[in-house]
């Protein structure tokens, strides 16, 4: 089955250059943060050393096209990427790398690309739902799914993971008619959950601590990957700078089932996650989304 993080990402797999660029800029959170703050105020028409990292960020999340040499020039494409991004996250649409935009970019997030599949003429009205689907609306054609655990990096034991993941599945089961059953280890299953570090053979290398926390593939792929380099919390008392494993599980399972990112910050399918918080409940938008995909 073709790997499918999102429709647009598929095509990247065929461009070696963007992938190599992505691997080479494995940077720590503070380095990325420093260069972003250094670039504050950048706008069209000038070159700014390090701006290629900003382009890379927007490329990774679906705002800047791939197959282009990512230079340090502030070009039209970057300005338009910034405007779309600012609109998507309800920031002031300036087309510049302003401080609010930088603050938003520095919040850790899911690695799956944002999707923009709303009818354009309706976007201005708040009537339009915030949930999205992957392009082509891929879905499962069964409601009984199995899952298992398989990691290339040892971070959290399967014994510890088991109840956390089971609770995350239960939240979706309760509103969707899906059932999720654990398959024995080392057997075939619809969904495979695991921890991986940096380059891990799926074309979407993780980036070390910070920024991307996890990613999952659209139906009917079933791969759910956690970034092994994050400070994961398995308790109900997530402390500052820790990432709640269960919160991220609920989000990534949404992708496994076919939901894209939501523009509603209250939705579990919102792309960004504030470290130190627990956000495990589905929002109304998530429930509306899964029902529209499978029952609508
Ligand atoms: C990308 O652009 C830079 C700066 O203009 C240049 O030095 C480099 O050779 C280019 N790389 C490719 C692969 O075109
Ligand atoms: C993870 O977070 C805990 C609690 O805040 C902290 O004690 C620990 O040092 C952190 N570990 C890493 C690797 O950052
Ligand atoms: C966290 O809370 C859930 C439900 O509120 C409970 O089932 C679970 O056992 C708790 N986990 C821990 C590690 O205390
Ligand atoms: C979309 O999300 C925004 C922000 O939370 C909210 O104000 C709006 O009512 C939501 N729209 C729908 C249709 O739920
Ligand atoms: Zn996501
Ligand atoms: Zn992966």
Automatic annotation (TrEMBL):
Gene Ontology CC, one term: plasma membrane
Domain of life: Eukaryota
InterPro entries in the record: M10A_MMP, MetalloPept_cat_dom_sf, Pept_M10_metallopeptidase, Pept_M10A, Peptidase_Metallo, Peptidoglycan-bd-like, PGBD-like_sf
Chain ranges for the short sequence motif Cysteine switch as given in the UniProt record: 108-115
GO biological process, one term: proteolysis
Main location: membrane
Residues that coordinate or bind Zn(2+) 2: 110, 251, 255, 261, 269
Protein known as: Metalloendoproteinase 1-like
């Amino acid at each position: 089955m073709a790997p499918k993080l999102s429709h647009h990402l598929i095509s990247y797999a065929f461009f070696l250059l963007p992938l190599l660029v992505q691997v080479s800029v494995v940077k720590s959170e503070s380095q990325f943060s420093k260069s972003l703050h250094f670039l504050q105020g950048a706008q069209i028409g000038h070159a700014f050393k390090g701006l290629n990292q900003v382009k890379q960020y927007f490329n990774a999340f679906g705002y800047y096209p791939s197959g282009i040499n990512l230079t340090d020039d502030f070009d039209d494409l970057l300005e338009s990427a910034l405007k779309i991004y600012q609109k998507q996250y309800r920031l002031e649409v300036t087309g510049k790398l302003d401080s609010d935009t930088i603050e938003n970019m520095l919040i850790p997030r899911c690695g799956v690309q944002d999707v923009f599949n709303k009818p354009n003429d309706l976007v201005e009205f708040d009537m339009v739902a915030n949930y999205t689907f992957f392009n082509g609306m891929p879905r499962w054609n069964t409601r009984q799914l199995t899952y298992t655990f398989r990691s290339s990096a040892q971070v959290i034991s399967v014994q510890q993971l088991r109840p956390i993941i089971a609770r995350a599945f239960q939240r979706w089961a309760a509103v969707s008619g899906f059932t999720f059953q654990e398959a024995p280890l080392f057997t075939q299953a619809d969904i495979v959950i695991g921890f991986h570090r940096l380059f891990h053979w799926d074309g979407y290398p993780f980036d070390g601590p910070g920024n991307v926390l996890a990613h999952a593939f659209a139906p009917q792929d079933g791969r759910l990957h956690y970034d092994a380099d994050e400070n994961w919390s398995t308790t109900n008392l997530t402390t500052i700078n820790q990432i709640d494993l269960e919160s991220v599980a609920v989000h990534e399972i949404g992708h496994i089932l076919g939901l894209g990112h939501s523009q509603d910050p209250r939705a579990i399918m919102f792309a960004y996650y504030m470290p130190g918080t627990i956000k495990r409940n589905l929002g109304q938008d998530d429930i509306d989304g899964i029902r529209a995909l499978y029952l609508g």
